[in-house]
Design a protein that fits this description.
The protein has nine helices and 14 strands. By secondary structure, the protein is an alpha/beta fold. Helix 7 packs parallel to helix 9 (342-359). The structure holds pyridoxal-5'-phosphate.
Amino acid sequence: MERVFNFSPGPAMLPVEVLEIAQRDMLSWGNSGMSVMEMSHRGKEFDSIIQKAESDLRTLLAIPGNYKVLFLQGGASTQFAMVPLNLMANYKKAHYVKTGLWAKKAIAEASRYGAVNVAASSEDKTFSYIPELKSEMFTPDADYVHITSNNTIYGTKFTDIPDVNGLPLVSDMSSCILSEVFDVKDYALIYAGAQKNIGPAGLTIVIIREDLVGKEMDITPTMLKYSIHTGEGSLYNTPPTYAIYIAGLVFDWLVKNGGVAAMEAKNRQKAAVLYDYLDHSAMFKPTVKGKDRSLMNIPFVTGNEELDKKFISEAAKKGLMGLKGHRSVGGMRASIYNAFPAEGVKSLVGFMKQFEAENA
Ligand SMILES: Cc1ncc(COP(=O)(O)O)c(C=O)c1O
């Protein structure tokens, strides 16, 4: 079976080279005589795997020495609770920017543990833009500010880092980590579910500034304390070993392919091909305009539900899969993460042109 172009928002495409190495290593990793899935997480083989994964991630993102890297479970959704439980240390209050469904879920979870001020929202226009933020919105009587850097469902992203009045800035980077160059130092805590730009589902990456560790509320379950995981090098309990191994292969692939700067250049080119067509098409309309456009998730609609359905079904027959948009936006969405090939975007645009000509 030939591989398809999978536009799924996540789990998403992995580099073929990575899958081939995993295939080669399936029965025996190196000379170990066992699959990574069968190894003790405390053995020397797995130790070398997790150490290299962390070291490559540190190189890729130029993570400063005063930040800890954690390989956790529970998905980004568990971070919606871990962040307030660990960071609402002084004021039991945080500012959140509501830019989509995931931000709403983060807000709902944080509200269980403290006061949440929704500093700004773009809900009035179906989250199709990033609201303007001013430092005055972020009053100093709060423990942190939370943003969602890239909004997977609505296809928007923060292009500028908000001025948060010196408060610790926390970002959900699940759908954009490693896709564009950014400065880790601008953030106090970054988290990301792995299943879009990093590797298999089941792994969550957290990058946290050391001074924020160890201030959790008393009620925090042991497994949800950052201090427990930083203290044990992500090995407090059995971590998602196979997912960490694949993530490590992806980091190695990224390092060998020019790192994040090279990915960003490719991602900009890929996104430009699709946006350029959408801006000129008479049939397909982008749902986001201007500078807030995501490089990773590109939603578009025809305005006619039947036509959308026909397009999705005919695209699938051509090996262009996973294009159905989220139910809150409708239409289509092309998710084109790091590992998504440029030829796939060209194929999609070629098919859209043909479909437009045939259905005008
Ligand atoms: C921006 C963002 N945050 C959080 C999540 C939830 O992630 P998980 O399924 O890992 O809990 C997603 C999933 O798509 C997402 O895109």
